[in-house]
């Protein structure tokens, strides 16, 4: 439906990996740094016409050198991120070409994304402000204060947000310019009363947050 709208990707890789213990995005997962596993899937996705990788300031030169050695016809550049994830994503968004009207945001730390999932979120933007990958909750979810359960949420209404998260450019940039911060872009678009939809993800699209997740990722690759 969006054949005329060009989609670009922002791959957020400017975190410090506090819970992991080091900058996981540059650590070798198998033969390549984690970030490059993720990047490859975006290079393979025909509906993504350009890519911005957001990395820590200190890693910018090295990343730019690495990117130059990638053989792809697709335009891929690196820019420096910021303190908060939203600052990094914002820097990535404004580095995309002017004619990009759909932006897909993805965590570098989710190396098992597929071109199909990316495409599903782009297609989902045809009739909404944004569309994200999410996973229906398998567990019953309790809202807890201290150690006391306040309420049990209706499991059928609970979806766990992943990335890619894809939005129309203007509403995403406006959302990122708001005061509020959040752990994902969808929350900020929702705060603007944007209409954001979900497409069903997979458990293999997990985020590498801890060493335990890293070990799981190594098993998947072996
Ligand atoms: N990220 C980013 N800029 C930041 C913070 C995070 O681009 N200022 C990116 C990370 O590099 C990662 C993704 O956002 O690919 C998801 O974040 P997370 O898993 O939390 O990674 P880190 O922030 O690096 O880890 P931690 O929160 O444990 O420090
Ligand atoms: Mg973080």
Topology (elements, then pairings):
Layout: E1 6-12, E2 28-29, E3 32-33, H1 34-43, E4 48-55, H2 60-68, E5 75-80, H3 85-95, E6 100-107, H4 115-124, E7 130-136, E8 142-145, E9 148-152, E10 159-168, H5 169-176, H6 185-191, E11 196-200, H7 211-221
Parallel strand pairs: 1-4, 1-6, 4-5, 7-11
Antiparallel strand pairs: 2-3, 6-10, 7-10, 8-9
Bound molecules: cytidine-5'-triphosphate and magnesium ion.
Residues 12-20, 25, 54, 81-85, 88, 107-109, 207, 209 line the site of cytidine-5'-triphosphate.
Word description of this protein:
A hairpin with a 2-residue loop joins strand 2 and strand 3. The model has no long low-confidence stretch (mean pLDDT about 95). This protein has helices spanning about 35-45, 60-70, 85-95, 115-125, 170-175, 185-190, 210-220, and strands spanning about 5-10, 30, 30-35, 50-55, 75-80, 100-105, 130-135, 140-145, 150, 160-170, 195-200. It has a 7-stranded mixed beta sheet, with helices on both faces. It has a two-stranded antiparallel ribbon with strand order 2-3. It has one domain (about 5-220): Spore Coat Polysaccharide Biosynthesis Protein SpsA, Chain A (Alpha-Beta Complex), CATH 3.90.550.10. It is of the alpha/beta class. It is about 30% helix and about 30% strand. The chain contains 7 helices and 11 strands. Helix 5 packs across helix 6 (about 185-190). The N and C termini lie far apart (about 40 Å). It is globular. Cytidine-5'-triphosphate binds near residues 13, 19, 83, 108 and 207.
| Neighbour order of strands in the largest sheet | 5-4-1-6-10-7-11
Which CATH architecture is right? Alpha-Beta Complex
Strand content bin: 25-35%
Question: What's the end-to-end separation, in Å?
Answer: 38 Å
Mean pLDDT: 95
The number of helices is 7
Domain module count: 1
Bound molecules: cytidine-5'-triphosphate, magnesium ion
Total beta-strand segments: 11
Share of helix, binned: 25-40%
CATH topology call: Spore Coat Polysaccharide Biosynthesis Protein SpsA, Chain A
Please identify the oligomeric state: single chain
CATH superfamily: Spore Coat Polysaccharide Biosynthesis Protein SpsA, Chain A
Identify low-pLDDT runs: none
Order of helices and strands: EEEHEHEHEHEEEEHHEH
CATH class equals: Alpha Beta
Biggest beta sheet summary:
7 strands, mixed
Which word captures the global form?
globular
> Which structural class is indicated by helix and strand composition?
alpha/beta
Question: What is the gyration radius calculated from CA atoms?
Answer: 17 Å
